[in-house]
Amino acid sequence: xxxxxxxxxxxxxxxxxxxxxxxxxxxxxxxxxxxxxxxxxxxxxxxxxxxxxxxxxxxxxxxxxxxxxxxxxxxxxxxxxxxxxxxxxxxxxxxxxxxxxxxxxxxxxxxxxxxxxxxxxxxxxxxxxxxxxxxxxxxxxxxxxxxxxxxxxxxxxxxxxxxxxxxxxxxxxxxxxxxxxxxxxxxxxxxxxxxxxxxxxxxxxxxx
Length: 208
What we know:
Largest sheet: 7 strands, mixed
Strand content: 35-45%
Helix content: 10-25%
Structural class: alpha+beta
């Protein structure tokens, strides 16, 4: 297992930026747009979602401006893994047919590709046939052997919005007991000052 020594301010900063749902946009804005987004346009984001996991998702805009989930990936590792190392962020791109993303957290570089028409995802070079599924659970992202895909599953793809128009990904996650269990919200962080922030995020996932 990798060294989990981390900067207190770095961990807190990453979690707070996760609450803002740092986004990379392909075809439409992640922030509530000034005018209705183009139907078929997509938005994407990656953020901290639990003491052990990041969540990445790609959503598609409908004619009414609502969003439908195309793909959701949960990246799980040791507690606080995403705050180790130096530098973090996500770069993404794509169109209505394909999406690709490079996710840099915890000194790691995670590669994700998604083909809309064939419903296939490629994670760290491994091709996954999703068929009707829209969620991929990835574990041990920080292990010496690299990430492993645990399973795929399907959730209701409707992506609700908060009153100010932001996507409510927590509501999607709590639709699946398997996802809630995978997030290990009961886990304690090595840096306790950030724990209350992640507890609040987990409370939103659990609907508390």
